[in-house]
Amino acid sequence: MVFEHFLHGGDYNPEQWLDRPDILEKDAALMKEAHVNCVSVGIFAWSHLEPEEGVYDFDWLSNIIDRLYQNGIYTVLATPSGAKPIWMSHKYPEIRRFSRNMTRELTGGRHNHCYSSPVYREKVRQMDTALAERFSRHPGVLLWHISNEFGGECFCPLCQEEFRQWLRERYGTLDALNKAWWTDFWSHRYTDWSQIEPPVPQGENDVHGLNLDWKRFVTARTADFVRMERDAVKAVNPELPVTINMMGDYAGLDYFRFRDLVDIVSWDSYPSWGRDADEEAVGQVTAFAHDLMRSIRREPFLLMESTPSATNWQAISKLKRPGVHMLAEMQAVAHGANSVQYFQWRKSRGSSEKLHGAVVDHYGESDTRVFREVAEVGRRLEGLDGVLATCPMPETAIIYDWENRWAVEDARGPRNSGLHYLDTVKDFHGAFWRLGIPTDVIDMTCDLSPYKLVIAPMIYLLRPGFAQRLRSFVEQGGTVLCTYWSGVVNESDLCWLGGMPGDGLMELFGLRSEEIDGLYDGQTNRLVPQEDFLPGRSYQLRELCELVHCTTARALAVYGEDFYRGMPALTVNPYGKGRAYYLAARGERKLLEDLAAALAGDLGLRPSLDAILPQGVTAIRRSGNPDVIFLQNFTGATQSLRLRRDYWNYESGAPLPRQLTLSPYQVLLIKE
Ligand code: GLA
Ligand code: ZN
After folding, report:
1. Which H helix or E strand runs over 431?
2. pLDDT mean over 369-377
């Protein structure tokens, strides 16, 4: 889905200012001054849209959308289901969630409706339909913003019943469920569907299959609610696209399951800029999140929220240093965002977000540092229409899988003080990011065929069919790198019998894993290369060291210490036309970087920019016609690098000198 221009704007809450027409009028003028062309309206406006039951008042919204449109500003129209009006919450207590302690919540808050409540579903459906009838053909309305940041779970009797129903459909018989959940353990065998309760602290916690299925169910229930809202608005105008604003690597939802429910992915990004001496580490994890969000549909996405200055919910509200705002927003664009949207346009006057960063402060004028930096981003985006049809098209994929994460984090052993699955995935991603080699971040259900290289860290839980697809991928010439703690359990969290990694992966990697050593914090081992695949003489290992025996694989490196000294620590196995690497322990950053560089060199992976990138500087390419390369300096220092071929400045068209200098936090757009 491609818009004509980059969207630039953010969440706008005119309903908070309806008694201040002067402010609403000024907003439109300020938006133009800030080069804002798109705002999200109505996100939490239900009590103004339906002040009393059955009485809709849309005229104020209509005036706002009209005025914006007359000023050249588009509207992303939200359905208001993210926050329920107080009158509704009181009249229909059943729309409120049951929290984990199995009691119904009182009225208040947001993002806390029961996904199963027929009353709430019906109220939302009616509201969405009415909004669609009134606005979905308005020329100023671009996109539906369904609800807001779906998340959380409800434990009410209705949701429990839905869970049991979902289980019946998944397993068919109670016997199949008991087998899949291994309920003979501790005599937890169910003899009636009604005995199944969700996993809560005061109840059942030890049945891993139950825990995992509950999380799957929460995703399915949430998706079902999204589907209901999507269908309501699409029934009126199927042409108007739909999005939901996601939250990056938020633990609670498997976002890949929302791929076909939305026309475009959007997400809300709140990095802790300013946390470290330079922005490299924060830039790295933010790059991961952008890549993950883009990979859901493998096409450009929208940055739906980001803060123009600081949030007010992080531990420290650090201001962005001059230049960091441009860097942060252009980083999103570099990774495939076709918008830069903020939370929020104007600071609210009261309640919990009154001190959250906004384009317009309580001061109310445009002569502020934040406003100027926002306007500068807007001005720059106006010159980038040509970038909209481009997108990073990586040849490398990193597997990050929500179900795997849930299972890894639920398992007891081999290191309850931290297996660091997500960190490990991010570490691998970061190694490629620093080399300027673009990566997708996909889950085990995604197509592997676009890639030459697949990095599969800690694939503990193997989704059905994944191991087989990985084998075919390698057979046909692909390269895979997998690590310790892989192929341990199946999709029901039952351990594979007959050796690890299971489901045919022992054959793919040409080895068998026998034991895994959990190291205490501070304890280390060493990886000692045996061949010149890796340039270093030794690398530090920590946390998890797996003891593997090669069958057909060859050791590229061995352990340097302890009773397993000399045993394989890094192996390679030729398989079909491809190769399968196995890293048996958690390694230091340098090891992952050298591994990434060695694999990239072997496979001829194309870096985004032909240059050696200094520490803290990286590049990513959006492929298209022409390609656009985003060179980003995440440090507060001037950096220089040598280009190995001719390049031009994408924005000015001027040729670039071979010896290139980047100012602090600079983002340079380059074409070949
Ligand atoms: C989330 C929400 C917004 C706002 C911001 C504050 O992203 O969607 O409504 O609360 O956080 O950072
Ligand atoms: Zn419920």
Report:
1. helix 421-435
2. 98
